[in-house]
Amino acid sequence: MRELFIEWMYRTVRIPYQWIFKRKEAWNLTLQELLRMPEESLGFHLGCFLCRHHFEIQPTLEEHDIYHVLTQTGGTVCDEITMQFYLLGNGKRSPFVYLVVGTGVVFYPFQWGHFYQSFRRGKQAHRFYDLNFLPLLPYPIADFRKTFNIQP
Question: Other CB atoms closer than 10 Å to residue 131's CB: what's the count?
Fold first, then answer.
């Protein structure tokens, strides 16, 4: 039941959030273009993540799924909360991060230890949340994780 509520909340907040805070150019890439990138690339891994979870590219929100790929978090509600704790630890401050983290604390109090570990891993990583990922898509994901000390 809580997952349904949280998913409803996300769908309700996404469009106004996107309109207010994400006023930028969409990447204009297709899933097929991502999957044609080299297999070791960030772009290819993004395409695989989208396929595996039956997600579509959300224009102007593309970097969100990049965060999932880099931090190796899945697509469940609890995974989303875990990833947002990671990003909070990495320095990202946004209404969406606070909303998701607050939701996690309220609806998943017994996961606090797991969320805190994710927050600590985000603090240990070099700041990456605000990079322009579009030109980085062809680069090897392993090199990117190593350079930015991104631990799953």
Answer: 14
